[in-house]
Specification:
The chain has 16 helices and 12 strands. The protein is of the alpha/beta class. Strand 5 (about 160-165), helix 7 (about 165-170) and strand 6 form a beta-alpha-beta unit.
């Protein structure tokens, strides 16, 4: 089988990295051949018309590079293809010039209820809170929102859409045909970490501290504020690391976050790392006593998968995606139920005394069962099913 992978977005972007790691695993399979194309849609300063033309030209070149593939796998969210209306044009350009069967992984699935779902509730009186105005707004949104129209375009052209969790599939259920949706869990990388825990903590200046780390881009909704407030209730020997940089467009949120830390008197106990290289990331993974993922909501979480790869103890908010991991291995990820400072503080207080240099055995179980080779096998089965159906209809 000859598989094409379209890598869209900068190499540092989590979604682009996701696709590249799948392609890396495909390259290890002797029965497969590979074609890869890379596109970074630029929005740098300059003539908008010229920038759009350059982006369209890049997508056409990528489509031509991939044209001999038997199947092409691409990644999609509302930002990496260009926010707003521009993404519709870019998607259209690539899909018109790439005639191969397409499959897509959908990321960051956050869509309001469809007008069809709201209409069913409205006319069945299942929810008295839905008004005629809500229904009209939803109908207009479904027909005029570029993000909704882009999802429709991607689904219309793709033979299969992959999502990483049952929760994401549920969120799509009122918008797309579920016959074309497959749940394949987020893979967990295999890490051969060379640095010891003691060496990592010494190098980072964290030798004597209890270290709590929140990993990933800094933006609202990931629980940074909640953790800052909880830190104020914890002993001064507890330090927090925000391992990652500020997400573009969320600079004001970061400034407010640091102002909150100053107000709570804990700014000197918080370290913000900025972007981390792979070796720097692994230092922080090893040095961490407790990984905290206090998400208000999420789609699939790359940071959770990263923590699982390091087999460190994990504390997360009790959301459906975390429950799916705990179905695989009960108790693998500890949770706090109510989304309050008090609940998070109590959970941390209960777990910090258990800090250990050893891997968490239950988290290690998840890492072994969600390994990249195992998850890629599920992709490969889906690729084969698409090709078989293509041959039947040819």
């Amino acid at each position: 089988m000859q598989i094409g992978y379209l890598h869209i977005g900068s190499a540092e972007h989590g979604i682009a990295r996701y696709g590249r790691l799948l392609a890396t695993e495909a390259r290890r399979r002797s029965s497969l051949s590979m074609i890869e194309a890379e596109v970074v849609l630029t929005e740098r300063k300059g003539n908008p018309s010229e920038l759009r033309q350059a982006n369209h030209a890049s997508l056409i070149r990528a489509a031509q590079t991939l044209r001999s593939a038997e199947i092409v796998h691409l990644q999609y969210n509302r930002l990496i293809w260009g926010d707003g209306w521009s993404q519709l044009g870019y998607l259209d350009t690539f899909m018109r010039h790439c005639t191969c069967p397409l499959v897509v992984t959908l990321h960051d699935i956050f869509y309001p209820p469809s007008s069809a779902a709201l209409a069913q509730q409205y006319f069945s009186k299942a929810s008295g809170s839905i008004t005629l105005r809500d229904l009209v707004k939803a109908a207009l949104r479904d027909r005029l929102s570029p993000h909704t129209l882009a999802l429709q375009k991607v689904m219309a052209r793709s033979r299969l859409a992959f999502v990483c969790t049952q929760e994401e599939a549920r969120r799509l259920s009122d918008r797309v045909s579920m016959q074309t949706v497959r749940v394949i869990p987020h893979f967990v990388e295999t890490r051969a970490i060379q640095i010891s825990r003691a060496e990592a903590r010494q190098a980072l200046g964290l030798a004597d501290d209890a270290v709590i780390t929140l990993l990933g881009f800094i933006y609202s909704g990931k629980g940074h504020q909640l953790l800052v407030q909880a830190l104020a209730q914890l002993p001064p020997t507890v330090k927090v690391v925000f391992a990652g940089g500020v997400s573009s467009g969320h600079e004001a949120f970061y400034q407010d976050l640091m102002a909150l830390a100053e107000k709570e008197g804990v700014r000197d106990r918080i370290r913000v790392t900025g972007y981390l290289s792979e070796s720097e990331l692994e230092q922080y993974l090893v040095a961490t006593d407790l990984a905290v993922c206090p998400f208000q909501q999420t789609s699939a979480s790359g940071s959770l998968s990263t923590w699982i790869s390091a087999a460190r103890p994990i504390l997360a908010s009790n959301i459906p995606q975390v429950a799916e991991y705990n179905e695989l291995k009960p108790g693998a990820i500890k949770t706090f139920d109510s989304y309050t400072v008090e609940a998070l503080t109590t959970a941390i207080q209960n777990l910090i005394p258990l800090r250990s240099e050893f891997n968490d055995s239950k988290v290690l179980f998840l890492s072994q069962n969600l390994s990249l080779p195992s998850v890629f096998d599920q992709h490969l089965q889906s690729y084969n099913s698409v090709l078989e159906k293509s041959l039947q209809t040819a």
